[in-house]
Amino acid sequence: MKPILSVLLIFFLSACSLSALPAKTPTPTAPAQSLLPIPSSATPTLPFTATETKSGPIIITQIVDVQTSVVPPSSQTSTQEPSATPPPTAASCAFVEGRLALEELSGQFLDQLKSAGLPVEKARAEAYGENCVAADGSQVRFAAKETDFYLTLNVTDLLDEAALGALLERALAIVELFPVGQTPGPNPGYVGVAFTAGADIQNLWFTRSQANDLRIQGLKGAELYRALKGTP
Fold first, then answer.
1. Domain boundaries, given as residue ranges, for the chain
2. Which DSSP string do the residues of the chain spell out, in sequence order?
3. Can you give the pTM of this predicted structure?
4. Looking at residue 87, what is its pLDDT?
5. What's the CATH class of domain 101-126+146-229?
6. For residue 14, what pLDDT is reported?
């Protein structure tokens, strides 16, 4: 019986001591820490930046520094060739078809024809091209395209095609003494031949290239004359 009473007494005393203890205060939960701004000393420098999002956290994002990919103007290498300083411009002008008498060349041409024994009455050389004419009508400059040769030969019979052709061959040989490159203009010009018999005149007008081609083909005398005259 005593053991039972002892257990009951211990249980009773324990219950009394527990009820006498003060109520346990629950451990408070730490409040959520608020995000603090990154101090200036910790703020990363370019190429990074800090950006605050709508939800609060700060996100570090990388920025492309475009200046690092651009060559400074002082060290840029241009692919374009430097343009030459333009020369002083001449007065504004309009190009008009024109001719320029070549007195010195005309004298040389005439002398060669006479030296060859041709019955030449007159001969001349002219440059054909364009005149640059200013607004006031004055000529600024002349641009030659070719040199043309003219000659007049005195004959007795305009119907003698063989004789006319023979004279024509000899005259063309003299024209060839003044090749392109030694006369004004880059192009072969024209040849004008006038055969005169008293008051009668027979004119031929053809290019130097045409005459050369016919001679290379072997045309002579009357055939050459008719071909350059333009008759069959």
1. 101-126+146-229
2. -HHHHHHHHHHHHHHHHHHHSPPPPPPPPPPPPPPPPPPGGGPPPTTEEEEE-TTS-EEEEE---GGGGS--GGG---SSPPPPPPPPPPPPEEEEEEEEE-HHHHHHHHHHHHHTT--EEEEEEEEEEEEEEETTS-EEEEEEEEEEEEEEEE-S-TT-HHHHHHHHHHHHHHHTTS-TTSSSSSEEEEEEEEEEETTEEEEEEEEHHHHHHHHHTT--HHHHHHHHHT--
3. 0.60
4. 39
5. alpha beta
6. 53
